[in-house]
């Protein structure tokens, strides 16, 4: 078990989005090593069918298992929504943490009127996992959901602000938010790990009476708790090391990844892998 605690935490997303989760984990658990895989060759997952998402997710998980990890964080809502039970079964007894439950928990905690809007990819919305988790946690809650497919492409493009992002946000969200105070959601979950990159613009468009929830910090909390419970916490006197893998175009991963990480990522720091 001692040896085991030294292994990295594995994180996986279809692309760069999961780096928003990596940031939150790095902030909360700075001593842990992190091993990140972005499956940019197959991105986007959000427009794919369930079986395809499960197949891709299992391939990515297999690659991380080969490298060695003590826990898998599915830093992708689409993969969590469609493949979490299969992953848990296949990888057992390795602990697997998804992003949906911690996101739903964060939202029900901050919502006052219990009306929560989930924005995510098509495949996450179709799975209805957020609604199910929210209603389980707060049975009186009311959920609205909206697939915002193009936000993924904008985030991968590094387009975070400006009139194109604003226009797109109005296009997707106006009909959900132009309602009377009784019908209007007071909380909006960023149910895709790419969306936090657009958070500032989205918050401006939805206005100050809607709290925008990024599940990432609650995911980091869930990871921390699970490591503690499993006796898998690393040596807190160390400084964690990070390794990045992508399935396509290291140069692009480094360029856009720098925006997600908020620090420069050089192409030499990114390993190209095949699944
Ligand atoms: N970042 C992924 C998520 O959280 C989805 C992006 C994609 O469509 O691949 O849902």
Describe this protein's structure.
This protein has 275 residues and is of the alpha/beta class. The protein folds into two domains: 2-98 and 217-272, Rossmann fold, CATH 3.40.50; 100-215, Rossmann fold, CATH 3.40.50.1860. 47% of the residues lie in helices and 16% in strands. The chain has helices at residues 2-5, 19-28, 50-67, 77-91, 100-110, 122-127, 129-137, 150-156, 163-177, 199-206, 216-230, 250-261, and strands spanning 9-13, 34-38, 71-74, 96-97, 115-120, 142-147, 187-190, 211-213, 242-246, 270-272. The strands form two sheets. Strands 4-3-1-2-9-10 form a six-stranded parallel sheet, with helices on both faces. Strands 6-5-7-8 form a four-stranded parallel sheet, with helices on both faces. Strand 1, helix 2 and strand 2 (34-38) form a beta-alpha-beta unit. Helix 3 (50-67) crosses helix 4 (77-91). It starts with a helix and ends with a strand. The model has no long low-confidence stretch (mean pLDDT 95). The structure holds D-glutamic acid. D-glutamic acid (DGL) is lined by residues 13-15, 17, 43-46, 76-78, 121, 124, 152, 192-194. Residues 13-15, 17, 43-46, 76-78, 121, 124, 152, 192-194 line the site of D-glutamic acid (DGL).
The string of secondary-structure elements, in order, is: HEHEHEHEHEHHEHHEHEHEHE
Cα(first) to Cα(last) distance is: 28 Å
> Tell me, what's the shape?
globular
CATH topology of the largest domain: Rossmann fold
Overall average residue pLDDT: 95
Number of helices: 12
Query: What count of domains describes the coordinates?
Result: 2
Q: Please mark out the parts with pLDDT under 50 across 5 or more consecutive residues, or reply none.
A: none
């Amino acid at each position: 078990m001692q040896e085991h605690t030294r292994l990295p935490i594995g994180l996986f997303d279809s692309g760069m989005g999961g780096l928003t989760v990596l940031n939150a984990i790095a902030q909360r658990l700075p001593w842990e090593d992190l091993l990140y895989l972005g499956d940019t060759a197959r991105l986007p997952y959000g427009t794919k069918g369930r079986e395809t998402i499960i197949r891709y997710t299992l391939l990515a998980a297999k690659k991380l298992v080969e490298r060695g990890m003590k826990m898998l964080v599915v830093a992708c809502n689409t993969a969590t929504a469609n493949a979490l039970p299969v992953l848990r079964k296949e990888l057992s007894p390795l602990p697997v943490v998804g992003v949906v439950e911690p996101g739903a928990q964060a939202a029900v905690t901050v919502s006052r009127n219990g009306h929560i809007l989930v924005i995510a990819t098509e495949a996450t919305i179709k799975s209805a996992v957020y609604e199910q988790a929210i209603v389980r946690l707060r049975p009186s809650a009311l959920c609205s959901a909206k697939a915002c497919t193009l936000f993924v492409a904008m985030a991968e493009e590094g387009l975070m602000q400006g009139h194109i992002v604003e226009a797109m946000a109005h296009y997707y969200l106006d009909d959900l938010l132009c309602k009377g105070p009784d019908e209007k959601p007071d909380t909006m979950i960023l149910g895709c790990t790419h969306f936090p990159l657009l958070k500032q613009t989205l918050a401006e468009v939805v206005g100050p009476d809607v709290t925008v929830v990024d599940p990432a910090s609650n995911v980091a909390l869930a990871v921390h708790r699970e490591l503690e419970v499993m006796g898998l916490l690393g040596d807190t006197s160390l400084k964690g090391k990070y390794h990045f893998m992508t399935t396509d175009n290291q140069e692009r991963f480094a360029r856009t990844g720098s925006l997600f990480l908020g620090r420069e990522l050089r192409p030499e720091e990114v390993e190209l892998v095949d699944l």
